[in-house]
User: What shape does this take?
Amino acid sequence: MGTKAEVDRLAMRAKPEGRPVMEQNWEKILFLHWPIDPALIQARIPPGLEVDLFEDKAWIGITPFKVTGLHLMSLPPVPGLDSFNEINVRTYVHYEGKPGIWFFSLDASKLIPVIAARLFYQVPYHSAAISFHDSGTQFSVDMTRTANRDVGFEARWQKGTRLRDPDVGSLAFFLVERYCFFAELRSSIMMTRVYHHPWILDEAVLESCESNLIGSVGLPEPSGEPLAHFSEGVSTQIWEPRK
Assistant: This one.
């Protein structure tokens, strides 16, 4: 399960063939990660996917960020629909040596993108009220899910020191350098490729964090302080999902 030697972590950085269907920017992203029992993850993902491990540990993350400039490649951005706030609960898997992301939940502050992403990408998007405050060095996010107001997330943090580019074998590289995500459609594994420049990471100094997002997907809420990183963001191209 999650054999490190069989996963090629650099190959997925290459730009995919063909034409992307969408462009968007991911800005002011906070990466929060906790180790988790691999068996808990393996039990929650489809057959064919394997838990991706770093030093025999699985990891689960929460990533709040801002989406801007979203548009289909054939169309300009639509005012009012091209920007919104988002929070993901994610873990790390691989399929036949291709490392990627498995989303347990995605919350977004605009309803139409939520509906479109659910239909086209088969990922578990939810509509939510998400406020994002940014002073340049200090940030805060507050989120409440629309359909279940008991599900929420709150975090306050400061931008810390710029970090050097993570080595391929480092934990930071393992957690953030992901260029595809997987979903399940009628018992088939679908892979969606993304392309962007490698992440430029800063330390994130977490001041507070309250969340039950991980518990809301049926996993135990993690204990202890998370590993925290921050990035100003990347410009991203996204391809259509394929088997």
Residues 19 and 123 are 21 Å apart (CA to CA). The longest strand covers residues 22-36.
